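Summary for the lay section of the report: proteins are chains of building blocks that fold into shapes. Here we show the chain for Bacterial regulatory protein, tetR family and then a coded description of the shape we predicted for it.
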Amino acid sequence: MQVIEKTKNNEVAGSVAARPGGRSARIQAAIFKAVEELRQAPDGPDMTVPAIAARAGVTPSTIYRRWGSLNELLAQVAAKNLRPDAPPEATGDWRKDLEIWLHQFVEEMSSEPGRAMLREVLGGEREENAGQCSAYTRQQLDAILDRAGDGSQAPTTDKLLDGVIAPVMYRILFTSAAPDHDYACALLQRTLEA
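The coded shape description reads as follows.
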């Protein structure tokens, strides 16, 4: 009882920040893992807050207190899953690196799991989720463009986002036919020539 009161007082006072790797991080990891396990279960329970809480070993109120809703929890899990696992491939030619990265990006995002994750990210209540995905893309493009020399005619990251990524994402999210590699390469070529 004393520990609970201390935690409540500290939370109200705002004097305790979440520690990386602390209890808060472990609870979040358990809840995110529960979401992933429920997604993998072929005949598992529906994706509900009580089902996630039971699998994670927490109370449903823990999930509601931290995320507010099931949609927001799923959006944050999806945003985390959209984070790249590694830096973009480095071949020694930044243009080739950009084309390789774009091919992988289009393939992953236009796949059914990719589309489902994007829908979940956009289904959350917080704008930061979509912003985080945009930041991941920007970081990847920045890493590739940093490889181009000063005299290279490399476009800015914003030009690539506006000229290539935005139309690709529009087609992924709002059309039934996913963009293919040729479409993305044509956008890239046009942006590089502009």
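Put simply, here is one thing we learned. The chain has a mean pLDDT of 81.
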